[in-house]
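Structure, all two chains, one model.
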Amino acid sequence: MKIIITGGSGFLGQRAARELLKRSQVNDADGNPQPIREIGLVDIAPPLNGLSDATVRYAVGDAANPKFIAETLGDDTDGIFHLAAVVSGAAEADFDLGMRVNIDGTRGLLDACRRLRKPPRVLFASSVAVFGAPLPELVTDATTPIPHSSYGIQKLIGELLVSEYSRKGFIDGRSVRLPTVSIRPGKPNAAASSFASGILREPLNGIEAICPVEPDTKLWLISPRLAVECLLHGFDLPAGELGRIRSLSLPGITVSVDEMVASLKRVAGPAAARRIRWEPDEGIKQIVKSWPARFDTTRANSLGFPRDEGGFDRIIDDYVRDEGLKLQPKY
Amino acid sequence: MKIIITGGSGFLGQRAARELLKRSQVNDADGNPQPIREIGLVDIAPPLNGLSDATVRYAVGDAANPKFIAETLGDDTDGIFHLAAVVSGAAEADFDLGMRVNIDGTRGLLDACRRLRKPPRVLFASSVAVFGAPLPELVTDATTPIPHSSYGIQKLIGELLVSEYSRKGFIDGRSVRLPTVSIRPGKPNAAASSFASGILREPLNGIEAICPVEPDTKLWLISPRLAVECLLHGFDLPAGELGRIRSLSLPGITVSVDEMVASLKRVAGPAAARRIRWEPDEGIKQIVKSWPARFDTTRANSLGFPRDEGGFDRIIDDYVRDEGLKLQPKY
């Protein structure tokens, strides 16, 4: 199987590639495991300290460029993880950039799939940002997505394209709506949710972080480990189990900011929590308040998607282990 | 006010232009009536026996060509009725054509709006085809649209773009979901719903028509008169009354095919009804069965959209009068 990952230099792309290498196989259309012979990581820039392996190739270029993406796919790609995207804050700040990468890029990729020898399986990383206020207290798979951001609209249009190209038999697609991923390694980014990792990551590294929202703010989160497991599970699911509805919300956990800080204290001590500066930002508060914090993910559960068990303490523990962090003094 | 109608050679475009000329004014952004100084009718071909008036200009070209549409809008267009579309059957048969006209055409038009002197009002003619089976018995404005056709997906993406461009302040947009329009004048077209006009129009003209569905098939219909009135009402609505949700289903009537035929008998006699040949077509039956036939249009009603009163007999009477038909002998 030849697998392509767009956004392959990003942290989810790199971790997905690493996990695929570890497993060394993915399911084919009939649900039978097949060895992975090549993983192509596509991104606008090579990763810093990227994964290196004989199976892995890098293709550096603009995923929204149809010629580049067609050459990268060749005619023998079997599966695609489409993770490349302009994130929420950036898509809001630069409308045309978001439209080009998030919509034209997705459509160009799907059109390139039509020229492959056989319809590939496509896993599209969507987002709970397809939902916007006003929302019910509990969002279900039947709740109508009404996005209230450019990013959300662009992801929802991506889902509709994935669904339609699947119906036409051009691809075997599926879209999974990711909760906010926390704790993301690396640096703050242009997402309005950037703080949801920053208020943990920076203090764990002995650095100050700003929290722009109130302590009682509730978030719908998934850990990096589970996010990657869900992407791979979503890819491996046979089309027959999905049926006609190709979009679903992934399992997550509802955590308030003060619960996250309490976990930080338990794992890394009160000194870490003191590195958070509380500086409410009205703009970010408004955006974050519009996000749903509670989901009924019955469908994902029944399709066997894994869930974060062990609460937020465990997510911090995993982060510390995965990143090889040495904790700062606790007091 | 300078008004542009895309799909201006089509029967709805021509009738909308005629009605605008009759009224001679539309509401501006503040809800105040302003005189219409120009109506630009844009289409790929000029109409047969088209409307002729000093206020009306024709622009013949491809609405999906950004340069053509930008030149047509100039920088002083105040309002747009975006009716141009590849219809359902044609969009299903030629996927790329549907994508180009129904998605790229809509996006190109909306992007051209960003270069106008001020954000124009845009009325987008969407369709109940955004809904696909399985559906509840009664479709409400809260029902999630899950299209099951290329046309439906393309219309839904158009709605999302209209909503997003409105949120960004590029346009003041609104999307109205039209029921099947019956009785359409002219010739059968590539829409799966073509029969819903054909089984009345052809017999009224003394011609045989094929009915591909069962007599108990229920349809959600709007008359041409009401369709045009609803388009104009939707255009005139102040943005404040619409709020954030820019899409809504128009009022229609639920009529079964045998009720339509009974109306035909009452208005034009049993001889007309005998001109219908019943030849069920499994393909069309499946498509038509997937369409919702009952809607709760509370939102449209409360926004003052007009409704068809007087049942289907009245719709046939209006058609006969509007088209200046001479009825055939009744027996």
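The mean pLDDT of chain B is 95.
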